[in-house]
Write a structure and sequence with these properties.
Elements: H1 2-20, E1 36-41, E2 44-50, H2 55-66, E3 75-79, E4 83-86, E5 108-109, E6 123-126, E7 136-137, E8 141-144, H3 151-173, H4 177-188, H5 192-207, H6 219-225, E9 240-246, H7 248-255, E10 271-277
Antiparallel strand pairs: 1-2, 1-10, 2-9, 3-4, 4-8, 5-7, 6-8, 6-9
Helix pairs in contact: 3-5, 4-5
């Protein structure tokens, strides 16, 4: 009998002790917040969500928007099934006779390539020149329209990325400089046949180099390119830093405008204002 009472007492005490212990708090995951901007254009309004994975580009874009740097600028380069480009400060008061595309603020933004960010339809990305570090223009940007791909055309796009990587690889090493100079000269002379031949040669040398690592388009990205579309040959060579979340029809409308031989719209497509959504 004594043994039974002791066991019962122990069980009761354990139960009481357990009930009085503070329960562990289950913390709910904090939802990530994103900065959004409203781009009001002469053809409609787009809402753009900026990427937290590219803080330098995000913060630069916000800073410029807050200071109205984009207000009244043109989409000065438009190529249907490719992209629409804007942000040249010289375009604010440009006439139809003016050549645009060289204007910028006096600094560059360090490249922020992220394997999760790719050139699907609707993404916002930074334009740049041919600087070796692939640093971005401080102001000029483009929004991808692109087109839908299949497996064979994606393989061609992937091969194009490989060739770009090969050229940059040898530029960084400082080897094959004669070939690279010849390729640049061919481009300056608009001799595209010679340019492509030299680029193919550089790619051949790169693939024979054990340290060269070509870029492969991930399978989940391929599926998006085969459904939504985009411009895969630009992946990991230009910084993607945002995405249109509302107003893709406005992107399509701007991309469809008639342009001249320099890809400038014959009728101005203008950013009226770029506003931060609080």
């Amino acid at each position: 009998m004594k043994s039974f009472i002791n066991c019962s007492l122990i069980i009761c005490l354990l139960a009481l002790f357990g009930c009085n212990q503070p329960s562990e708090k289950t913390e709910m995951p904090v939802e990530e917040t994103f900065q959004k901007v409203e781009m009001i254009t002469t053809l409609g309004t787009m809402e753009i969500q900026l990427s937290n994975e590219t803080p330098l580009h995000r913060d630069n874009f916000i800073h410029l928007a807050k200071h109205h740097a984009y207000d009244s600028l043109l989409f000065h380069r438009v190529i249907q099934n490719f992209m629409i480009q804007g942000g040249d400060p010289d375009s604010r008061k440009a006439t139809l006779a003016d050549t645009l595309g060289d204007g910028d603020a006096p600094y560059l933004v360090k490249a922020e390539f992220n394997k999760a960010l790719f050139h699907k339809k609707g993404v916002l990305a930074a334009a740049r020149d041919d600087n070796p570090a692939r640093s971005s223009s401080s102001m000029q940007f483009y929004i991808v329209q692109g087109k839908v791909f299949n497996d064979s055309t994606l393989d061609l796009a992937q091969n194009r990325i490989h060739k770009t990587f090969a050229v940059d690889y040898f530029k960084e090493l400082g080897t094959r400089s004669t070939l690279i100079d010849s390729m640049d000269s061919a481009m300056d002379q608009r001799n595209f046949e010679r340019y492509n031949l030299i680029k193919d040669s550089i790619y051949g040398f790169a693939t024979a180099d054990a340290n060269f690592k070509p870029y492969m388009i991930p399978e989940d990205h391929r599926e998006v390119y085969k459904t939504l579309g985009g411009t895969p040959h630009l992946d990991q060579t230009y910084t993607v830093f945002g995405e249109v979340t509302k107003g893709l029809e406005v992107l399509d409308a701007i991309a469809a405008v008639e342009t001249d031989d320099m890809n400038r719209p014959l009728k101005d497509a203008r950013i009226i204002s770029l506003k931060i959504i609080e």
